[in-house]
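Researcher: I'm preparing a figure for a lab meeting and need a structural model of a single chain. I don't have an experimental structure, so a prediction will have to do for now. The sequence is pasted below. Please return the structure as C-alpha cells so I can convert it later.
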Amino acid sequence: MGAKVKLDIIDPASEEIVARIAEDDAGAVDAAVKKARAAFEGGWRSASVETRQRALRDAAKAIGDHVEELATLETLNTGILLKDARARYAGRTARNFEFFAEYIGQTAGRVFDQNPAYITSVRREPVGVAGLIAPWNLPLALGSMKIAAAIAFGNTCVIKPSEQAPLAVIRLGEILAEILPEGVVQVINGRGHVTGAALVAHPGVAAISFTGGAETGRRIAAAAGDGMKPVTMELGGKSANIIFESADFERALDAALLGVFANNGQQCLAGSRILVQASIADRFIEAFAARTRAIRIGHPHDPATELGPVASAVQRDKVLGAYAEAIEEGARPLAGGKRAPGFERGYYVEPIAVEAPSNALKACQEEIFGPFATIIRFDTEEDAYSIANGTRYGLVSYVWTRDLAQSMRAQERLESGVVWINTPVTRELRAPFGGVKQSGIGAEGGAACEALYTREKTITIPRSDFPIEKIGAV
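Model: Understood. Here is the structure written out cell by cell.
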C-alpha cells in the first residue's frame, strides 16, 4: 500500500501552509462507512427520541463551550472574518443541534382508520448511513446542519468537508465523538474525485446531502442515481436583488452591500445581480459605488475589517478574470477590479461593482463567487421579473418595495426557491431552504431534512379476523 497523499491547508490571509491533512482513499472511506453502519445497527437507530434529544443538546452546549476555538479554525482556512465566524457561524452551528433536538420532539406518524376493516399507520424510519459533503465557503455552519439533521432522525453519518477548508469540521467531529456513541459521526478528508467519489458510490451509504458547485452536483447526482440513493443538493446561485422605486432607499442600499459583500462575497445566496428601477438608478449607483470603494479591507482577525481575503489563489484569479472579461463585454466600471493594495501576502481583492449593459453579460449569468456586484437598470415591474428569471439558477430572490401589492406579485412571479422581501439574508430553520432549476434538488430545513433522512413505512392491520378465500384446497 502506497503512502497517503498529503493535502496542504492554506491560510488565505497569509498564503502560509497551516496544516497538512492525509487524504482518505476508498479503503479509508469503506472503513468509515462500516464503522458508521455498525453504530447504526448497534443502537443509534433504535435510540429513543429523548436519548437523541439529550445528545443533540449536549452537542450544542459543547459547541458553545468551544466557540472561540472553532471560529479561529474556521477563519484560518477560509478567510472568513473572525467576528462573523464567532458570532454568526459558530453560533449557528450550536443552534443547528438545538433546533433538531426541538424538531424531533414534535414528529409523529400518521394513522388512517377510515376503512371499517383495516387500520393503516405510516411510520418514518432512519435510512441508515448518510453521506454528507460540506462546502469550503461555510464549512462549519453548513456541515453541522447536515450532521445535526442526519443524526437527529436516528441515522449515522460520514461527512467530508472540503479539502480546502476542513479544520473546523475535523475539530467538530472530535467534540461530537466525546458526546455521541462511537461511530455515529465519522469525518473523512480528501478531494472530491477521490474521497467524495468513494463516499457517494459506497453501497453502504443510503442518502447523500451535498452543498457546492453545480457541475460537481451533476456528477454526484449521476453517481447517486446508479445506486438509487435519494439526494439533496444545494448548488449555485445568481440571485437577483430587485430594488423598486417604492423601496426604502437607505435600507435597500445597506442590504444590497451586505448581500453581495458579506462573507467576503463567497456565498451561494449572494444578491450579486442588483436590479434597480431606472427612476432611482443614478442615485443608487452613485451611492453604491462610493460605499463599495470605502469598504475596509483587512486581516480577518481585525475587528474593523469589513472584507477579508477570498479563499484561494484560484478564487482570486477567477474574480479578477471575471472583471476583465466584463469590461471587455461593455460593462461600466464602478469600483474595484484589482488586487487590494497594501497586502504583500494573502488573496485580497478590491470589492468590485460594475454596471452591466444587459443581463446577457457573462458576469450576470455565471456564478463568480466573490466580492463582485453587477448592477442592471430596469424600467417596469415586468422587466424586473424577466431579468431576474433570466438565468439558469433559482436559489434566492430579494425584493425591496413598500408597495404591499407589488411584493405579493413579486413573490408569485420570481422563479426561486426562496424569496426575501425587505430583508437581507435571514434563515428560518423550520422552513425549507433550497433552489429550483440548476440551483439544486430538494431542500434543507425541518420537514425537508426529515424527508431525506427518513423513509416512510406503511403498516396495515385488520380490525378483526375475516374469511380468506381458499385456493388449491381439496
